[in-house]
Every structure is written in structure tokens, then in C-alpha cells.
């Protein structure tokens, strides 16, 4: 145990995430780990969020070099399925060919027209430019050129679409624009080992919400990488969700995580609640997880009841056996960050994928995608959700399928992002001071960012 972990135990005796998680039984090895390497406690300059030159450098050295989540495997499940992923001014067309997944620069080799519209997905037998009808097969080979006698200089055998690296892991399709980048499995570092018992390949996108946010992509994502702000921005959460007692771990350049207990009051909460009151309160947020008349047996916790009923629900409705999963593996927020911009929550009770990226080439705005995953029905009959887009000035509550409680929380985050962005420009200090533990993963994000920015072309 390092010094900061000892401080956390002394500050929240018996109430750290690990303490709460172990009340219902032993933890699996991957959740027993704690990793908090020493850091340089420097301030972080606001120019990293506001300066156009810094943003442009990120586009060259981060987004053109890193593996990025593009879509779920179910988006491109059948031969002919396609999906367009955009990052800044870059755009990639992902297709399912007879040979498997392929990814191409979304640009015609004739006059550069986009082959498919930004953000589009669907099915096509081939790839055809909408301008002059040049066409390619799904494997990227050239199919035809109208009036091809006009192009004697074009060698058809060498006129295939320019490829982008593409690979899939745990149901997630990832792309990398750098042909020299290491394989995805190497980039993932410890993730495959941690997720060995958390298989998301049998899940699908049941809800996909996209929100345009008023802040730099890092500013926007960092609000989801700490809960230091929760008692002040989301005070309604403190009675039933941990915050300052969350566990934060840094495993490698690309991977970190935070672990947050559900149905467990924050140490900042001013209200004493029984286990039954905790369970009844959680019903407000997720009535689908536990029955409305559920009772907490003597000697058990609200968390145990939620996990047990979720196991039963998964077995009865989906034929899935979670009997070997611990309580936190079932219901807690187990949030893994994959550099640069992906958050993955594998627990069945809160199974999400969240992504943050620049909104076009605007350094002051970001796109937030949230994918809610559900198990695929046993009969195989499901429909992948279409994206529902929310403008910056619209509430998350405008999405009918959005839980009202969660919508309110996300709206609160959006309001703060706008104030933080404007405050960065107004600052006389010109930098932020991060905490040694609760905001350590934000500092780590910038440490990894620097490693890429310092690497020569």
C-alpha cells in the first residue's frame, strides 16, 4: 500500500470502495488491485485546452497515431454493412467484406469526395463515389471508372482504396490511421486480462445518444474521470453513490480506471440510511434492476439484493450465468479509461461505452457519445439503436428513453463544462491545480498525451 492509499483509509475508515465492495464477499483478483504510481504534481496549463496550435498538434500526433473506438461489431455484422467514423477532419469508412473487417480513408481517389456521408451507417454491395461514380469492391479493389479510356494513367490493379488499420476487441471495432502503429492487442495493455471475465461480445447497442458539448474534448471527458465535484454539482447522488471514497488506479500509459460503489452512501452524505432505505432509493433510478417489493434480508445489504436479483434477471431473460460474479462486478460503476478518449463500464447493472472527441475541428467543443449495451436476446432478434442527437442547448431529458435522474445529472455536467471553458479563457493564473489522488487520472492523461506529442513524426 502506498502513502496515498494509506491516507485514503485513514480519511474514510471502513468506507473506501474496497471496504464497501468486500462486505458482500471476496473480490476477484483484478478488482483487488490498487495502482497509484507517483506523479509530477505540476499545474496543467489551460493552453492545452484553449490554444489552437496545441489542438492542431493533437490532431497530428494523437488522433493520427492512437487506436480509437469507431463502432460496435453489431454495426458492421453482415457483409456489406458500413459505418463512418469521423475525428476532426479525418474520416474513415469501415465495412464488413467477405474477408472480414476493412477500413478505408473516406475519400475518393478521383477528386477527393467523401464516399459516404459523415456519421452515416447502413448496407451497400460496394463502395461508390456520389460525384462521378467511381466504384470499388468491399475489399477495396477498384471495380470501375466511368469513361475509363479517359484515365490511361490509372493502373486498376494499384487503384485500391487507401486502408486504415482496423481491429476488434470485446465487441468494439477500433481504428488507427498510423500504418506503423503496434497491433491493437498490444495497445490495450492490461485491458484484455482485466476483461477476461467481462465478455461484451454478446451485448448490443440498445440506446445511442450523442450530445454536442461546450468544451474541449479533454475538459469534457475529465468531468467523467473524477467524483471530487459530485457533492457540489450532483448533491442528490451522495446518499446512494460513493464519490470521494472512489478508488482510482493507473495501470499503464493507456489504461486507468475508477471504481464507484452503488447503493452505498458517500462519506460526504449528511443522511444516515438503512439498507432497506438504500434499496428503496435505488429503485427510483433503476426500477428494472430489482423488484418494487424487494426486501433486504437480515444480515444482507441493499447491494447484495440488487446483485442477486440482477443475476436472476440475466439468467431468466437472457440465459446468462453470472453466479460467479461478485456484487461489485454486477452493479458497480467499474469505469476503465482507454487513452485517448474511451470509457468502458463492463458491469451488467451499468453497461456503458462513452466516447469524447473534438466536434469537427473546433477546439472549444466536443462530441459525447453514450452507448447503453443490453444482452442480445436468446432468439437473436434485436435491432441496433440509431443515434439520437442532442444539440448543445438541448437537455438530455429531450431523449424519451433517457432516465430522468441520469438526464438531470448529465445536464448539470454540461452547465459546469460551459463555465469551466469560459473560466479557462478568463483565468489570470492560466493553469489548473489537480488533487494528488481523486484527480490523478486527469494528470496521467496529460502525461500520456505528452509522450505522444513529444514523439517526432
UniProtKB/TrEMBL annotation:
Pfam families on file: Rieske, Ring_hydroxyl_A
Keyword flag Zinc: no
Matching InterPro entries: Rieske_2Fe-2S, Rieske_2Fe-2S_sf, Ring_hydroxy_dOase_asu_C_dom, Rng_hydr_dOase-A
GO molecular function, one term: iron ion binding
Cofactor(s) for this UniProt protein: Fe cation
Keywords, sorted A to Z: 2Fe-2S, Iron, Iron-sulfur, Metal-binding, Oxidoreductase
Family annotation (Gene3D superfamilies): Naphthalene 1,2-dioxygenase Alpha Subunit, Chain A, domain 1, Rieske [2Fe-2S] iron-sulphur domain
Rieske domain: residues covered: 67-175
Organism: Croceicoccus marinus
Name used for this protein in its record: (2Fe-2S)-binding protein
Keyword hit for Metal-binding: yes
Amino acid at each position: 500500500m502506498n502513502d496515498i492509499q494509506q491516507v485514503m483509509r485513514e480519511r474514510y475508515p471502513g468506507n473506501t470502495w474496497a471496504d464497501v465492495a468486500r462486505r458482500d464477499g471476496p473480490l476477484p483478483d483484478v478488482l483487488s488491485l490498487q495502482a497509484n504510481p507517483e506523479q509530477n504534481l505540476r499545474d496543467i496549463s489551460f493552453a492545452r485546452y484553449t490554444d489552437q496550435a496545441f489542438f492542431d498538434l493533437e490532431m497530428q500526433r494523437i488522433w493520427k497515431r492512437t487506436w480509437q473506438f469507431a463502432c460496435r461489431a453489431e454495426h458492421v455484422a453482415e457483409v456489406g454493412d458500413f459505418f463512418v467514423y469521423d475525428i476532426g477532419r479525418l474520416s474513415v469508412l469501415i465495412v464488413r467484406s467477405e474477408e472480414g473487417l476493412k477500413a478505408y480513408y473516406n475519400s475518393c481517389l478521383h477528386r477527393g469526395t467523401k464516399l459516404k456521408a459523415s456519421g452515416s451507417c447502413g448496407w451497400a454491395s460496394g463502395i461508390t463515389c456520389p460525384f462521378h461514380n467511381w466504384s470499388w469492391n468491399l475489399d477495396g479493389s477498384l471495380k470501375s471508372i466511368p469513361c475509363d479510356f479517359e484515365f490511361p494513367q490509372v493502373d486498376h490493379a494499384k487503384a485500391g482504396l487507401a486502408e486504415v488499420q482496423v481491429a476488434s476487441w470485446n465487441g468494439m471495432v477500433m481504428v488507427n490511421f498510423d500504418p506503423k502503429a503496434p497491433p491493437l492487442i498490444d495497445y490495450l495493455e492490461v485491458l484484455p486480462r482485466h476483461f477476461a471475465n467481462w465478455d461484451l461480445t454478446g451485448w448490443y447497442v440498445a440506446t445511442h445518444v450523442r450530445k454536442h458539448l461546450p468544451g474541449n474534448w479533454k475538459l469534457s471527458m475529465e468531468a467523467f474521470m473524477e467524483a471530487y465535484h459530485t457533492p457540489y454539482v450532483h448533491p442528490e447522488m451522495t446518499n446512494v453513490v460513493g464519490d470521494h471514497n472512489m478508488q482510482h488506479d493507473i495501470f499503464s500509459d493507456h489504461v486507468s480506471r475508477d471504481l464507484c460503489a452503488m447503493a452505498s452512501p458517500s462519506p460526504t452524505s449528511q443522511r444516515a440510511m438503512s439498507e432497506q432505505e438504500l434499496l428503496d432509493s435505488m429503485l427510483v433510478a433503476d426500477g428494472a434492476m430489482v423488484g418494487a417489493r424487494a426486501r433486504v434480508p437480515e444480515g444482507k445489504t441493499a447491494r447484495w439484493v440488487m446483485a442477486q436479483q440482477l443475476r436472476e434477471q440475466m439468467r431468466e431473460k437472457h440465459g446468462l450465468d453470472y453466479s460467479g460474479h461478485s456484487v461489485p462486478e454486477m452493479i458497480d460503476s467499474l469505469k476503465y479509461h482507454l487513452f485517448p478518449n474511451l470509457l468502458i463500464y463492463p458491469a451488467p447493472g451499468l453497461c456503458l461505452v462513452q466516447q469524447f472527441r473534438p466536434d469537427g475541428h473546433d477546439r472549444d467543443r466536443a462530441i459525447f457519445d453514450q452507448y447503453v449495451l443490453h444482452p442480445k436476446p436468446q432468439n437473436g432478434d434485436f435491432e441496433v439503436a440509431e443515434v439520437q442527437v442532442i444539440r448543445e442547448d438541448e437537455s438530455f431529458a429531450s431523449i424519451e428513453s433517457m432516465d430522468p435522474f441520469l438526464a438531470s445529472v448529465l445536464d448539470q455536467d454540461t452547465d459546469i463544462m460551459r463555465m469551466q471553458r469560459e473560466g479557462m479563457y478568463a483565468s489570470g493564473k492560466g493553469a489548473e491545480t489537480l488533487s494528488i489522488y481523486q484527480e490523478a487520472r486527469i494528470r496521467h492523461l496529460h502525461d500520456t498525451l505528452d509522450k505522444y506529442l513529444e514523439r517526432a513524426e
